[in-house]
């Protein structure tokens, strides 16, 4: 079977999405290697049925990090035997393009999001211009690709003439979750980044009689901790940091409400379909979710979330209190989560993934 390399800039220990993809392809017979980043606080890698490699860098953020990591990635890939290479998002696309051209191998683009439209990019004109230049120069050269929802697929079709598949990031279907072990706390899991509405979520917690547990890290972590101190919520907002998928899953099974909210400050947020949306669903957790197109579409069919029209402090606090106080409504969403999980799961998406790679490599 074909040798495939997948490239990311994150620490592989916490990337559930790439672990699922690589595991499925390895089980299908491909020889898979996932390449990521090694940091000072990286924990040992979990043994998997695919190969894993982490590259250590001297720089850990900003332009120098991206330049160094892409150079190291290019050198690493240049001397590996492969039949195909897959760039996950724009931040590893340049070395993948160059190596695929030099080696004359198939190249695939996995667009997990609209990278150039993230708040930390689109709000900085010079950085946006640089990344958009990279996107225009590289994406049209990737004949094969897939993304997480139909809206983003249409955008790539309109801008670059590329007909990318839709393969959504959903958890494996597990046995149904009951509410027997539920504790009345609110869970936010995922990147603590700009544009994730912490500026309104944190002060909203002053009017919500429950704790907020934050599992993750990111470029807005220090500002979020400062907001907690500013509003005197040190005993009400708990920071758990980065957790392994197994530990995170155990917290999911105890949570009462999940949080999936983004500021409407760029197409990446507005057209997103976050991993956590499905993670909460599979854990049987009703969630507070912003009423953006992809979430609206799914919720109209399954009703697993309470959608809010904006991410103002008042909208958040009112909605959270509704989920906390109205037991029958919470129970309805909880049961809908369990039913939806039987339809929206990785076992179904895996079929599309395997067919996608079969069409390329036979």
Structure commentary:
- The chain is α/β, with parallel strands linked by helices and about 350 residues long.
- It has 2 domains: about 5-170 and about 345-360, Rossmann fold; about 185-340, Rossmann fold (3-Layer(aba) Sandwich).
- Helix content is about 45%, strand content about 15%.
- The chain is built from 15 helices and 13 strands.
- The strands form 2 sheets. Strands 3-2-1-4-5-6-7 form a 7-stranded parallel sheet, with helices on both faces. A 6-stranded parallel sheet has the order 10-9-8-11-12-13, with helices on both faces.
- Strand 4 (about 85-90), helix 3 (about 95-105) and strand 5 (about 105-110) form a beta-alpha-beta unit.
- The longest helix has 17 residues, at about 60-80.
List the keywords:
Rossmann fold; seven-stranded parallel sheet; six-stranded parallel sheet; alpha/beta; about 15% strand; 2 domains; about 350 residues; single chain
Task: Quickly describe the structure.
The chain has helices at 16-27, 62-78, 93-103, 119-122, 125-138, 150-160, 198-204, 221-230, 245-252, 267-270, 275-282, 293-302, 313-325, 327-341, 346-361, and strands spanning 3-7, 31-38, 51-56, 84-88, 106-111, 144-147, 165-166, 185-189, 211-215, 237-241, 257-260, 287-290, 305-308. The protein is α/β, with parallel strands linked by helices and 362 residues long. Strands 3-2-1-4-5-6-7 form a seven-stranded parallel sheet, with helices on both faces. A six-stranded parallel sheet has the order 10-9-8-11-12-13, sandwiched between helices.
């Amino acid at each position: 079977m074909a040798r495939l390399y997948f490239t990311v800039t994150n620490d592989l220990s916490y990337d559930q999405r790439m672990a699922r993809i690589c595991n499925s392809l390895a089980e299908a017979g491909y020889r898979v290697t996932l390449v990521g980043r090694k940091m000072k606080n990286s924990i040992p890698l979990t043994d998997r049925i695919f190969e894993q490699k982490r590259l250590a860098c001297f720089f850990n953020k900003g332009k120098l990090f991206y330049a160094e990591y892409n150079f190291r990635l290019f050198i690493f890939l240049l001397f590996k035997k492969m039949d195909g290479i897959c760039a996950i998002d724009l931040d590893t696309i340049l070395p993948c393009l160059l190596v695929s051209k030099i080696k004359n191998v198939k190249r695939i683009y996995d667009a997990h999001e609209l990278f150039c439209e993230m708040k930390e990019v689109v709000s900085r004109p010079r950085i946006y211009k640089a990344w958009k230049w990279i996107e225009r120069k590289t994406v049209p050269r990737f004949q094969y690709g897939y993304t997480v929802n139909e809206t983003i697929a249409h955008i790539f079709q309109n801008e670059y003439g590329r007909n990318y598949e839709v393969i959504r990031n959903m958890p494996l279907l597990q046995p149904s979750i009951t509410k027997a072990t539920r504790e009345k706390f609110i869970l936010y899991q995922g990147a603590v980044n700009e544009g994730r509405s912490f500026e309104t979520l944190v002060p909203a917690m002053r009017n919500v009689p429950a704790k907020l547990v934050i599992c993750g890290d990111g470029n807005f972590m220090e500002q979020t901790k400062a907001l907690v101190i500013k509003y005197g919520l040190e005993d009400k907002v708990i920071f758990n940091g980065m957790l392994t998928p197994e530990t995170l899953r155990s917290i999911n099974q105890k949570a009462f409400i999940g949080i999936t909210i983004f500021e409407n400050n760029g197409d990446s947020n507005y057209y997103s379909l976050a991993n956590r949306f499905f993670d909460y669903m599979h854990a049987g957790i009703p969630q507070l979710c912003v009423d953006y197109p992809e979430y609206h579409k799914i919720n109209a069919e399954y009703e697993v979330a309470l959608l809010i029209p904006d991410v103002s402090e008042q909208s958040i606090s009112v909605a959270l209190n509704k989920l906390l106080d109205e037991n029958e409504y919470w129970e309805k969403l909880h049961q809908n989560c369990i039913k939806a999980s039987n339809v929206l799961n990785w076992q179904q998406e895996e079929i599309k993934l395997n067919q996608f790679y079969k069409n390329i490599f036979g």
